[in-house]
């Protein structure tokens, strides 16, 4: 079959590559360049055959780890985070682009950004590039030492908390475990609030419990009460509770009880229809009570004479959605809330917590002496002007005692500007409350065309304002610390745990003899120390007219005693089973150690004198020819091994152990039938 033109051309190209490779491998310099750069010198770079990640690695670079979260690059921003006091958690990730664990953890980090806690700015996420220009300064300010591995930290009220079990999670390379551990670490700080949200107990879906809660007297901190059923996104209630703390109280109850309250008591329908008019099954909803419910009263109808219960659901708003997201719930609640102070509906009220968000960059603050009365139309129009990039808000000095002492305001109502989030410098605007004059003054601050002498504070403005610390009970505080301590000892415990279990099991097995080898162990230990399980040969020695030394007898008192052979043993063997072992040993000679198998109940051991005339002639007949002579010649130079005879009880047949056979092997062969007793007894 002839080759086509395309096949010939492909063969030529292949041969060119082979020759080129041979040329490179034959030249030391070219081979070194190929190992270093991954290409043949002089070859053109083909970018189409590489991915973007491979191109970065080809040029010895790393692609940056991208993220939706903020990059912390300023010491001033970090200082504001450390100065913050309130119910907000700052989550920090320390990383670098060349860190493999950081690159692997990136997807887990980005997954947390979808949480409603992050969307509601209850949790704010930052990243610090350890190898950036400002990275070392930021890490020094936090007291963190970076060792080339990812670090996750939470900052609450200026205190730093490290994520426990982070190394274990990263080493497991399980994305699911990583996200669960990160979420558990964050949620551990909000456990107390979570318990508070679920503290309203409704037994048997009884709406009376809900009514009693809505009829309780309310203060300024709980003037608005919010009810939510268990939602698809459970953290929505938690986020709303933190965001509107001091204004509204959020509780979660069962869906059945809340629907019964809305539909049967308030006579409102919880229904949601789609675009085509179809009814959506099980829509999600939120109930907002703007004032205390009055007690239910009974009214009597004179015309009919029947009593009628009047249902009171005054100022109860119900919002329904197919899927209630945090954004929808927040919008519904914020629209339903009345203004904090009269006449200030469209102006942001600034507290110790909201100051951080409002003055993230530039802000304009109206310092009001008192917020009891509504402002004049002049001030309202001035504050509603467009002063971008400045955010506008107001605060009440009558509720900020610490701030009043630090500020000596020239007039009861003063405008103050903060530039670049610097809470130490306050720029007072002495202009009249005219939008044009205010805009001109703010523009001059940014352009620095006009010199301004700000008021320098020794304490940042956020710390001068009244604020509540992060709500953390003592129980929760100790729980978080215990998890951190456990994360330190867990690696050591996990590595030593198998050895500890093996040690304990070994001790228990030996203690209760569960393996059944204690006797064997004792015998082996005795043999290793040079001792042997000896027979008490005092009786045999007495039969042969010999006497043992007293000290030798005492030293063997704790060893097993072997009885001497008598005629009664043969009579008993006729009806018994097993083997009768006869050891022919002189009483003056030391008995060698017996193997542990002789402890078996199928063996009966007896000691016989070799000079017994009944057995002497029989043993001579059983020995192979020439054995006696050789044994006698060597008896003077080495210890003579005793002769052992095994009698099969019941059959009354015997066999003699060969002199070169191992004792334990020979006895095992007797038990399994490899060796049979065939010689008749004398």
Automatic annotation (TrEMBL):
Residues 521-560, 614-643 are annotated as: Disordered. The keyword Membrane applies. The chain crosses the membrane at residues 484-505. Keywords: Membrane, Transmembrane, Transmembrane helix. InterPro entries: J_dom_sf. Residues 521-545, 627-637 have a biased composition (Low complexity). This is DnaJ chaperone protein. It comes from Trypanosoma cruzi Dm28c.
């Amino acid at each position: 079959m002839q080759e086509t033109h395309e096949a010939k051309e492909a063969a030529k190209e292949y041969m060119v590559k082979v020759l080129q490779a041979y040329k490179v491998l034959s030249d030391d310099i070219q081979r070194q360049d190929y190992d270093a750069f991954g290409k043949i010198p002089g070859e053109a770079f083909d970018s189409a055959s590489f991915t973007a990640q491979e191109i970065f690695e080809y040029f010895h670079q790393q692609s940056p780890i991208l993220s939706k979260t903020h990059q912390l690059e300023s010491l001033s921003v970090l200082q504001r985070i450390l100065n913050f006091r309130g119910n907000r958690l700052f989550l920090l990730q320390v990383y670098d682009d060349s860190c493999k664990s950081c690159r692997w953890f990136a997807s887990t980090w980005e997954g947390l950004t979808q949480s409603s806690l992050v969307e509601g700015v209850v949790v704010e996420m930052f990243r610090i590039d350890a190898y950036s220009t400002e990275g070392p300064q930021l890490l020094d300010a936090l007291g963190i030492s970076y060792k080339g591995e990812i670090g996750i930290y939470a900052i609450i009220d200026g205190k730093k908390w490290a994520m426990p079990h982070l190394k274990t999670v990263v080493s497991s390379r399980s994305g699911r475990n990583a996200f669960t551990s990160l979420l558990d670490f964050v949620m551990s700080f909000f456990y107390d609030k979570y318990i508070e949200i679920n503290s309203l107990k409704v037994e048997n879906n009884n709406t009376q419990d809900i009514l009693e809660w809505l009829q309780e007297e309310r203060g300024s901190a709980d003037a608005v009460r919010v009810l939510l059923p268990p939602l698809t996104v459970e953290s929505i209630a938690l986020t709303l509770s933190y965001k509107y703390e001091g204004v509204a109280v959020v509780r979660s109850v069962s869906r059945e009880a809340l629907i019964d309250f809305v539909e049967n008591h308030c006579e409102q329908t919880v229904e949601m229809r789609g675009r085509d008019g179809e009814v959506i099954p099980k829509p999600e909803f939120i109930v907002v009570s703007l004032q205390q419910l009055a007690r239910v009263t009974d009214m009597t109808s004179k015309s009919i004479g029947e009593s009628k219960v009047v249902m009171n659901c005054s100022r109860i708003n119900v919002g329904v959605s197919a899927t209630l997201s945090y954004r929808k719930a927040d919008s519904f609640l914020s629209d339903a809330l009345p203004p904090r102070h009269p006449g200030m509906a469209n102006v942001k009220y600034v507290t110790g917590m909201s100051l951080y968000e409002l003055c993230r960059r530039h802000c304009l603050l109206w310092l009001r002496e008192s917020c009891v009365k509504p402002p004049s139309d002049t001030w309202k129009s001035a504050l509603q002007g467009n002063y971008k990039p400045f955010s506008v808000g107001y605060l009440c000095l009558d509720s900020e005692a610490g701030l009043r002492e630090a500020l000596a305001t020239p007039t009861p109502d003063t405008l103050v500007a903060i530039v670049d989030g610097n809470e130490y410098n306050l720029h007072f605007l002495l202009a009249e409350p005219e939008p044009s004059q205010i805009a001109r003054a703010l523009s001059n601050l940014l352009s620095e065309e006009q010199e301004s002498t700000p008021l320098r504070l020794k304490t940042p403005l956020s710390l001068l304002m009244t604020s509540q610390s992060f709500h953390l009970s003592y129980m929760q505080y100790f729980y978080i610390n215990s998890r951190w301590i456990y994360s330190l000892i867990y690696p050591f415990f996990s590595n030593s745990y198998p050895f500890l279990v093996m040690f304990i099991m070994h001790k228990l097995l030996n203690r209760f003899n569960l393996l059944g080898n204690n006797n064997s162990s004792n015998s082996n230990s005795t043999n290793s120390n040079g001792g042997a399980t000896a027979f008490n040969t005092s009786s045999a020695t007495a039969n042969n007219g010999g006497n043992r030394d007293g000290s030798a007898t005492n030293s063997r008192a704790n060893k097993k005693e072997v009885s001497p052979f008598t005629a009664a043993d043969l009579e008993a063997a006729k009806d018994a089973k097993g083997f009768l072992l006869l050891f022919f040993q002189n009483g003056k000679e030391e008995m060698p150690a017996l193997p542990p198998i002789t402890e078996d109940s199928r063996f009966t051991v007896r000691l016989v004198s070799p000079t017994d005339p009944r057995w002497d002639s029989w043993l001579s007949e059983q020995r192979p020819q020439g054995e006696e002579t050789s044994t006698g010649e060597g008896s003077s130079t080495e210890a003579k091994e005793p002769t052992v005879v095994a009698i099969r009880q019941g059959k009354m047949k015997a066999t003699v152990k060969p002199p070169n056979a191992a004792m334990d092997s020979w006895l095992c062969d007797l038990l399994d039938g490899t060796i049979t007793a065939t010689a008749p007894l004398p």
